[in-house]
Amino acid sequence: xxxxxxxxxxxxxxxxxxxxxxxxxxxxxxxxxxxxxxxxxxxxxxxxxxxxxxxxxxxxxxxxxxxxxxxxxxxxxxxxxxxxxxxxxxxxxxxxxxxxxxxxxxxxxxxxxxxxxxxxxxxxxxxxxxxxxxxxxxxxxxxxxxxxxxxxxxxxxxxxxxxxxxxxxxxxxxxxxxxxxxxxxxxxxxxxxxxxxxxxxxxxxxxxxxxxxxxxxxxxxxxxxxxxxxxxxxxxxxxxxxxxxxxxxxxxxxxxxxxxxxxxxxxxxxxxxxxxxxxxxxxxxxxxxxxxxxxxxxxxxxxxxxxxxxxxxxxxxxxxxxxxxxxxxxxxxxxxxxxxxxxxxxxxxxxxxxxxxxxxxxxxxxxxxxxxxxxxxxxxxxxxxxxxxxxxxxxxxxxxxxxxxxxxxxxxxxxxxxxxxxxxxxxxxxxxxxxxxxxxxxxxxxxxxxxxxxxxxxxxxxxxxxxxxxxxxxxxxxxxxxxxxxxxxxxxxxxxxxxxxxxxxxxxxxxxxxxxxxxxxxxxxxxxxxxxxxxxxxxxxxxxxxxxxxxxxxxxxxxxxxxxxxxxxxxxxxxxxxxxxxxxxxxxxxxxxxxxxxxxxxxxxxxxxxxxxxxxxxxxxxxxxxxxxxxxxxxxxxxxxxxxxxxxxxxxxxxxxxxxxxxxxxxxxxxxxxxxxxxxxxxxxxxxxxxxxxxxxxxxxxxxxxxxxxxxxxxxxxxxxxxxxxxxxxxxxxxxxxxxxxxxxxxxxxxxxxxxxxxxxxxxxxxxxxxxxxxxxxxxxxxxxxxxxxxxxxxxxxxxxxxxxxxxxxxxxxxxxxxxxxxxxxxxxxxxxxxxxxxxxxxxxxxxxxxxxxxxxxxxxxxxxxxxxxxxxxxxxxxxxxxxxxxxxxxxxxxxxxxxxxxxxxxxxxxxxxxxxxxxxxx
Length: 923
Fold this sequence. Notes:
Shape: flat
Radius of gyration: 33 Å
Helix content: 40-55%
Low-confidence stretches: 1-19, 443-448, 553-576
Structural class: alpha/beta
Strand content: 5-15%
Mean pLDDT: 87
């Protein structure tokens, strides 16, 4: 009945000229309850009705006296309808024109097809809704703030649109197992994929320093400001978490001031805006960037678990309450932090791991950075020729630094070459420092600067020392923001500030007249801290190694942020927000700066005797520190292997060893490595870390097993493992974005040495092309026993290649081709080849597209092959007919223990026919 009436009313609104005018009074009556529930703001309606003399002040007073919003809307509707058709139509036109205030009613307005009459079009409509006007102001200010990205030289800003590039965003479980990838930013908020805790409200985005967490939030902010982020967010409040470290212990603030003072303040009726936010928290989106950068001694156990949105309290308590959903429950929140920062599970809705640039991402970024196609090709070719440098470029920040340095030196010296040979992260940062200092020089228009790096550093020693001293002071106390007095205390001049190592940020201390500074990136503060430790001659052994001590103190337990007193006991005196990655970077740069190859650079900055003393102290420490990392040998599931599951800090130790570029150090570390099975799974190792692994492993004399599953190795990491392959009998590279190119490298290297027995490559990006390389390796390596290829895309062509390879293989016992898109054709090839194989014991073909015809072929194989023990055909497309073929074949085969068929096209009733054959498992 209502639908028919709707159609009649819609027709009346759009009647042709000459017809009777539509009844807007009737329209308001029919949709009365929809309007009552959909209108959140009445003031804008009343203001406009008064402005056009449709309402008197007495009418407005009658509306105001009602206590609830719904009753106010009902009274307005009664008054409007009583005043006739014109007023009723004008009421609808206000709803249509003030889109921001009445956005929930826009679909209804589209549905009824309302078009204002000529008379109503002449009547002015003014948006006086403080909420929608505040939303407009928020969008304007956030759009302006997110438009540019500050470059590494403060005087240059780059458009976000010209610098942001997509990277790998992986949805993960609580244990960091992959649940898929985020392809569109709206996918972060889509619960269809990656939801791990429906009661949590926070999307936790984590990754290494420089991986792109902050710029991701800036991109989200920009899209929201342009109304291109469709996630139902009317309000957007962004916070940098390090600001919470600036508040004193006795400082308090209410939620309203926290939101408005540190974002933007409403121009009209802030109380009404805040009330709306409290009433509709699901329309609010928060971003909290850098949770690990909060360093505070504030005792969270001294405050109640619940807090009022109106009462002043310490800002950290407000932050914790927002994240836990105790304040503004139902609001959307994105929280970022560096890898290793553990957040309590009960607040997390999704976990998103940023893995940096894939090969395609890097190509896109290169094309975006270098506008000239010839230069793009040149840079990509040079990166391809130097896998070490290419691996560093998988981290967006380091890629940007390398590209900016290339761009700078190319413009100054007409150099078309990127650094070659072994490039360390220290080399990259030294290059960046040199580029900064070069930009400050006044050079002739006709003559380029020809100063060497050593001469440049020597000429600016005092500047480097002053900036390093401030970085060191901050690093000791985990401070990342510096007041004007901090800058003056170490004699940093205005000219030094203009170099671009530091940038100004909004002051949170209340002294708006004074500038507050921070280093361009946290890693840059770490670099300058290490530089200070090297060139300050008074630094002794204890000071030199102090940040190693900071890292080793948490070796057995990763730091956990957001310790809520009622859920987890907080050790006395411990900082609940602590993370130590900035210490790790300081140690890494210290190793690089004290490497032998840097002595020529630093002999002009510090005496050779002091440099040698510091280098000796460091090398001795590194040698001793390897011992605790390699304790706790356990027996591997593979026979003849003693396994060591290293601590996450072990990867940092390898990185430090690599930065020294000392063969002596590498050999010493290899000598200390007593295990022959090194498990580095889930260590967040990236492709650049493979250089560090090779740096040590290639010195080991015995055969090794290396487990790098569930990291971010990719093809370039595989290439950097080249020095290791002559030692590796077991290699696991599953869940690592390895493509056909990486598999080709594996084939070419492993086939040389003929010692590999276990190859794990499941859940990568391998197609039939890569499958053919693996098949060739199987054919040529009689030593292979295990091949794990689950979750790739080898298809039927790849299956055929595997079939030929395993046909007469003498030792292959376990093979998995599950979830590989193999259909009947590929299945029949495998079944036929298995008739001739006498070694395979277990074969996984789960989650393919095998049907009854394929099942018939496997049945024929089972009549002949008496060596196969387990055949897994779970989740294929086999019906009862196919199961019958297999069941009949088992009458002629007593060797096989099980044929697993769970999840196929067979019901429980049909499965009863095979109950007598226990080896057929259907459910």
